[in-house]
């Protein structure tokens, strides 16, 4: 399509095609982000090395290790297999808990949306359990599950589960009834209506729910590892995950390592959300697809 | 003596009442009419009269509280491929391309034979979307979406096409083109049409039989045979005495009915919406 004005067969003008993302604007956005990173790092560095501001002690920055110290610790840790194993341990837990939440939450949300009777039975219980914060489950989870690993996985599952179910339920409730009527009027069987109409309509909600849910799982995994003392690794730096890594850095007095642990979690959360966003974009190419 | 041909649709003393709490509302009351095989029947009535409710009953999406609807002589029990509905706003599947949308019906019925595939391709070509067969609905203009929907409905060989204000919301120019286009398409295929509208010009242009509906609760107030010759041209209507006479007659009835509705309060759509949200609350 290279003509300027497209005209449909009946002669009406065709909606103009939206240009792709303007690279100039996104380049400027990147530059601005870099500038703001640089400013934060500079203020942090100055505050952490001088520890005072106009003769007064700086409240937070004054007690932080400087970015240079953090960078130094980071460089050292990059060669330390223990650090990588911590990250890997946390990552595995997130994947397990999140995966379980998707595998259980999506079907449950769909079933509740499609079956009002089941919904009347399950939803009240669901709403009663939902306000309980995932971390309140930690002691009970440790008692319920045979291994500490499973208890941590369970707490992470709890963190992602409600968000998944609510998003799927909301998405399925708002499926356009005319689409279902159209499919039925063409003689589609129930299964076909479900798999070709309801399910694709719910996918955007699943994608959004997953992105929110995976953020929650990174919040939860760290706290769960801290509280439980590191899971099956028995408290060693290798098996404890990033949460335990931060905690043991605190106990051991290596403050730059705490910050490295925190930043690592931030990056892991960012990368996993980005991965889901990308996957979601592939799954919903039909929504606002460029021409 | 030969028996008269079975009408495509027979609506017999149909009533539909919605109840919300203790309030009851009769939206359709004692409504009877036929849609003759091969005819282009237009239902026209004031907005809020209950025409869309009637469409849902004939389509089989809802059941009448009274009376009976027969299609091809047989009472209907639910929706079926013999009746295809094209709604007011687009109801294309957003996750399917034009070609996938059009092929959906035959595929869903496991009847996607070589013939069905060829018919789908021919229809896409006929509605002028050949170049857009692999585009998603969000990439099509409003008029193209309507044409894709017409093709998607026609591929199912419906006995009747039911169109509920299908060109509402299009700009005036596109709407005019679509009307002339659809009139040509349906005369060429000799298909039975039941077309719902609030627009008199549209109604007279398309109809060979015009059913003027009362305000809510709706039924047929007057049936008018539109004996204007074909091919009709929208632009020529302004100077056509016969068309103007018909138009005045229909408008005066509509005026009366609309005035009646003005005093009567809520239209059908408000009430159906209230009914639906009540049902949704009760199901949770």
In short:
The complex is a heterodimer of chains A (291) and B (284). A two-stranded antiparallel ribbon of chain A has the order 1-2.
SS strand fraction of chain A = under 5%
Largest sheet of chain A: 2 strands, antiparallel
Q: Provide the residue-averaged pLDDT of chain A.
A: 83
Q: Beta-sheet strand percentage of chain B?
A: 15-25%
What is the CATH T-level topology of chain A?
A: MetI-like fold
- How many domains make up the 3D coordinates of chain A? 1
Q: Quickly count the helices of chain A.
A: 10
CATH architecture of chain A: Orthogonal Bundle
Describe, in plain words, how this protein is organized in 3D.
The complex is a heterodimer of chains A (291) and B (284). Chain A has ten helices and two strands, in the order αββααααααααα. Chain A is mainly α. Chain A has a single domain, classed as MetI-like fold. With 284 residues, chain B is an alpha/beta fold. Chain B is built from eight helices and ten strands. Chain B has a six-stranded mixed β-sheet, sandwiched between helices. In chain B, strand 7 (160-164), helix 5 and strand 8 (192-197) form a beta-alpha-beta unit. In chain B, helix 3 (114-126) runs antiparallel to helix 4. The mean pLDDT of chain B is 83. Chain A binds chain B through residues 8-15, 17, 116, 119-120, 123, 176, 178-179, 181-189, 192, 196-197, 200-201, 203, 284-289, 291, and chain B through 59-61, 78-81, 83-85, 87, 89, 91, 93-96, 104-105, 108-109, 127-129, 135-144, 147, 156, 170-171, 173-174, 177-178, 181, 283-284.
